[in-house]
Amino acid sequence: MVNFEHVFYVYNPKSPVEFEALHDVSLTIGKGEFVALVGRTGSGKSTLIQHINALMKPSQGKVVVNGYENSPKLKHKGKEILDLRKNVGLVFQFPENQLFEETVEKDVAFAPKNFGMNEKDALEKAHEALLKVGLDESFFKRSPFELSGGEKRRV
Prior knowledge:
Elements: E1 2-11, E2 19-29, H1 45-50, E3 60-65, E4 68-70, H2 79-87, H3 104-114, H4 119-132, H5 149-154
Antiparallel strand pairs: 1-2, 1-3, 3-4
Helix pairs in contact: 3-4
């Protein structure tokens, strides 16, 4: 479950270019519920989404994701934020620009390894994830840069 409680976010606070991107946002997304955010460029969609896994912290208010709280007092290097990010995945608008490993399986295994998983288990998790998104064993050893745009987004 995701719960936004009176969330505000201000870019460049107390500067001449201060901009309030989120103003008193309150919403609840229930377990298993699908939600689409629709709006013009610059309307705050990406800013809102980046609060779910604490890539951004609210200026005011809080976001609670399955019991993990993102608020102005959250430490960006602490155990809480690592636990939150282990449980919340985020696909960026142009994920194909974030591929960097020499093989698809290594690219997908990067996150579990980054959270302390050993190489063997990380590759096993990567294989499971790739199969779930419809990329079979023939993709595992390929370069991510050889994939189509849709395949890159699944990686």
